Amino acid sequence: MRSLLIGLSAITLLFSAVATSAETRRTNHYSPMSEYTASIFKAVKQYLPSESEARQGVSCKVSFRQNRSGYIQEIKVIECSDGTTSNLLIQALAKASPMPQPTRPGDFQEEVTIVYSPQQLP
Asked: 25 and which of 30, 52, 53, 67 could share a cystine (Cβ 3.0–4.6 Å)?
């Protein structure tokens, strides 16, 4: 079973190779997998608190298992420094289900791990 790690932040992406597909193509680092992770990021981020509402200094690591249609079957909190934030992340995942499908079926990941860490701009 392959798994995918995505970093979510209220302000910035924490996973290095992923940007919006237009940005990725512009920097010549385009790959269908980075487009897939960006689409999952976008789907979940829309349900997370805005930058001003997010708790700063909190970090949560959550994994979810999805079926081939993108519907989330299971969500597990791996570690989180704040119970409220872990609940918000779980709710965001549930609302974002079903997850977007990859352009190439071979890029599908059954298990995805998300690290959510809201950060303040300096």
From this structure: 30
